[in-house]
Specification:
The complex is a heterodimer of chains A (194) and B (213). Chain A is of the alpha/beta class. Chain A has 7 helices and 7 strands. Chain A has one domain: 3-Layer(aba) Sandwich (Rossmann fold). Chain A has helices spanning 6-12, 30-43, 58-67, 105-118, 131-137, 140-156, 172-181; strands spanning 20-25, 48-53, 75-79, 96-98, 124-129, 160-165, 184-188. Chain B has 213 residues and is an alpha/beta fold. Chain B folds into 2 domains: 2-150, P-loop containing nucleotide triphosphate hydrolases (Rossmann fold, 3-Layer(aba) Sandwich), CATH 3.40.50; 153-213, no CATH class. Chain B is built from 8 helices and 9 strands. In chain B, helix 5 runs parallel beside helix 7 (104-120). Chain B starts with a helix and ends with a strand. The chains are: A alpha/beta (194), B alpha/beta (213). The interface between A and B is medium-sized, with 22 and 18 residues.
Chain lengths: 194, 213
């Protein structure tokens, strides 16, 4: 039985627009934590936003959300994965934009800014899923620079940024930067008992 | 084209001289963008001219232009600008136009005179200049002349990163204005061009940049 983590919703009541929330997940609880973060943002705070999917294709994520009863029609998805899959961009959802590759970091940022200019919601979030997926393709220093730009760009625009990562799959330099620049942390990273 | 659309939205008369593609094709392509409204063309705020048609009017059907031809061309462009009251002008491209002018001195004279006359009329002009791999040594323009005469240089090109091409824009020179000289990544959106500074660590493959593409 799928159960949401209610403590995340409580924690999110403490953050403001313009905050940058680092969400640490483990390899097995990633979707549960994602859903537990997205749901209160949409239902409690009535936010819309952009979901950057670098770990899985957007269709798969939309269907997973729909399966647990989350309506994502108010979210625009930027899919960084499916262009690399033959026929991956042939989908029916109008709320998906495809980016050629996870290395097109500037394009992703520009496309996010464009979508934010076109959405109707007054309050918006940008959900980055995930830093460790981007780390597969991008150099540590460039990724750290990107996240620094990402956080400051949305902070200035009063857009909440939520940055998902699996800490033990994220380069130390990048993780250290996230710790420095994020204003809040939701830590659900896997605990390994030795 | 967006430069002209923004001018038209402010009520300015604008003109576009096209030498690289037919005006019909140009308008067909630009129609896809939400910021463009065909009424701007219908109402005469944006005027698109085919250079081929202009050449025919002037009887310039020869392979290369001499001094008289160049002056006739300048006069006709200036007359059009003057008659319509154009304050924003685009010539796409001066490279195509200058290929018909065989002497570098004549090209310099053409661009300098054209620029001077248009500036006197209060018209801001964007001269599109192509930079191809064949003219790499020409620095910022095809003939190495345009860059010295122009008040500003905006370079557009592609930066290659791991087999993908990122569009970029860089303001190299803009007289009388404080500006960034960094490369900016650009995205052509339905709302118009959007840009952000390129990531510094992503520019390591700059030597592979394809200027003017």
């Amino acid at each position: 039985m799928f159960e949401l983590d209610q403590r995340i919703a409580e924690q999110l009541t403490q953050v403001s627009l313009g905050s940058a929330v680092q969400v640490r997940v483990g390899t097995s609880n990633s979707f549960m934590v994602t859903a537990s973060t997205i749901l209160p943002l949409m239902q409690m705070f009535e936010m819309g936003g952009v979901y950057i999917s670098a770990s899985r294709g957007a269709v798969e994520i939309i269907q997973a959300f729909e399966a647990v009863g989350i309506d994502v029609s108010n979210i625009h998805f930027l899919d960084l994965v499916s262009s690399g899959v033959l026929g991956g961009t042939d989908v029916e959802y109008p709320n998906i934009t495809f980016i050629d590759s996870p290395i097109m970091l500037e394009s992703t940022l520009l496309r996010t800014l464009y979508v934010l200019r076109t959405v109707n919601s007054q309050r918006n979030f940008v959900f980055l899923d995930s830093v460790n997926a981007l780390a597969i393709y991008n150099d540590d220093r460039m990724l750290a620079e990107y996240l620094h730009t990402f956080i400051n760009t949305f902070r200035q625009r009063e857009v909440l940024s939520v940055i998902l990562n699996v800490p033990d799959q994220t380069p130390p330099l990048v993780l250290a930067n996230l710790d420095t620049y994020c204003t809040d942390i939701v830590d659900r990273g896997q605990v390994v008992l030795m | 084209m967006e430069f002209l659309v923004r001018g038209a939205l402010a009520g300015e008369a604008c003109a576009h001289f096209t030498a690289t593609e037919p005006s019909v094709k140009l308008l067909e392509n630009i129609r896809q963008y939400a910021f463009f409204d065909m009424n701007m063309v219908d109402s005469g705020l944006i005027n698109v001219f085919d250079m081929d048609v202009l050449y025919s009017w002037l009887g310039l059907d020869k392979a290369s232009f001499d001094l008289d031809d160049v002056h006739a061309l300048i006069k006709s462009i200036v007359d059009i600008v003057n008659t319509i009251g154009v304050t924003r002008l685009v010539i796409d491209s001066v490279t195509t136009l200058c290929y018909k002018i065989k002497s570098e001195q004549l090209i310099r004279d053409f661009l300098f005179t054209l620029g001077k006359k248009l500036a006197t009329l209060g018209c801001t002009t964007i001269l599109i200049s192509e930079i191809t791999s064949a003219t790499e040594n020409a620095h910022w323009s095809s003939f190495g002349v345009e860059e010295a005469i122009a008040d500003g240089i905006i370079v557009m090109g592609d930066a290659e990163r791991m087999g993908h091409l990122l569009r970029f824009l860089q303001v190299v020179k803009m007289r009388g204005t404080a500006h960034s000289r960094a490369k900016h990544a650009i995205e052509l959106t339905p709302l118009g061009v959007m840009l952000i500074p390129m990531l510094k660590w992503g520019a390591s493959s700059d030597k592979n940049s394809r200027w003017g593409q």
